[in-house]
Amino acid sequence: MWDSYKNGFKAWLQLEKSLSDNSVWAYLRDIDKLIGFLQASHELKSPADVTLKELQRFINWIASLGMTAASQSRIISGIKSFYKYCLLENICTTDPTTLLEAPKLKRALPDVLSFEEIENIIHQIDRSTPEGERNKAILETMYSCGLRVSEVVNLKISQLYLDVGFIRVLGKGDKERLVPIGSAALKQINFYKNQVRVHIQVQKGNEDILFLNKRGAKLSRVMIFYIIKEMAMKAGIKKTVSPHTFRHSFATHLVEGGADLRAVQEMLGHASITTTEIYTHLDREFLRKTLEQFHPGFSG
């Protein structure tokens, strides 16, 4: 019975919301969890007949499975989106999720690397190998442009406008943005592209992909994680370092330097300014630490 609702919801997410395949499948998995719960409760009724009480029991059930507050919030968001679709399509006349509350989230801020720490990590790369030159280009680009790991592995040669110092990035929901690229990254990309990549036998379908593995195919996201973890370890950095740390540090350094928040939002490709505002909280902490360190009369 729910298959037709799911198919309609899937089409709505793809066509109306322009979500990526990964996001669409995540939403559909959330609906599958709800269906599984209703079946287990012997109450698999139509979406219109599901009550707030049942949805609250569902949230308690996923919490009892040991899901984190963040996972619970994401599932609730998926269920709310489904009911938004149901209202638009007149499958429901009321929305049972209106009063459905997500668990309060403590926003855990990832570690931030200083500019010196990033330089130290990049300095650990063995540039005597073709892979080393590629890895340096990847890390320089991630820090220079604040790219997500998925954006860097999918970066295409046709998206490079190096003569004018910009790259075109395809972000979440296939939204495009133009990001300025710094001179160090620009120089390293040019070197990799013209001196290293030209010697790789490119696999069919990967001709336009910038960063390739030894076999001439697109790099995996896991490979980027591995490269960064290894270099951070060699640099003796004890912080938790991942590809996202580079993006997070890029944004933090911009805000600490006084960059306009709207400009940072644009460069990060955040759909909402509230996502970018996390960096203003970081900035306040930075200001407090600066005062504590340098102001003789400051305490508390």
Largest sheet: 3 strands, antiparallel
The level 1 CATH classification of the largest domain is Mainly Alpha
Q: Which strands sit side by side, in order, in the main sheet?
A: 1-2-3
Distance between the termini: 60 Å
Rg estimate, integer Å? 23 Å
Structural class comes to mainly alpha
Number of domains: 2
Order of helices and strands: HHHHHHHEEEHHHHHH
Which runs of at least 5 residues are low in confidence (pLDDT < 50)? none
- Total helical segments: 13
Beta-strand content estimate: under 5%
Using DSSP, what is the number of strands? 3
Mean pLDDT: 88
Shape: globular
Helix content: 55-70%
CATH superfamily (homologous) name of the largest domain: Intergrase catalytic core
CATH-scheme architecture of the largest domain? Orthogonal Bundle
CATH domain topology of the largest domain: hpI Integrase, Chain A
Sum this structure up briefly.
The protein is mostly helical and 300 residues long. 56% of the residues lie in helices and 4% in strands. It is built from 13 helices and 3 strands, in the order H-H-H-H-H-H-H-E-E-E-H-H-H-H-H-H.
Structure explained in plain terms:
The chain has a three-stranded antiparallel sheet. 27% of the residues are buried. It has two domains: 2-88, Tyrosine recombinase, N-terminal domain (DNA polymerase, domain 1, Orthogonal Bundle); 115-293, hpI Integrase, Chain A (Orthogonal Bundle). It is 56% helix and 4% strand. The protein is mainly alpha-helical. It has helices spanning 2-15, 21-40, 52-64, 69-88, 115-123, 130-145, 149-153, 183-196, 221-234, 243-256, 261-268, 273-276, 278-294, and strands spanning 160-161, 166-170, 176-180. α6 packs antiparallel against α8. It contains 13 helices and three strands.
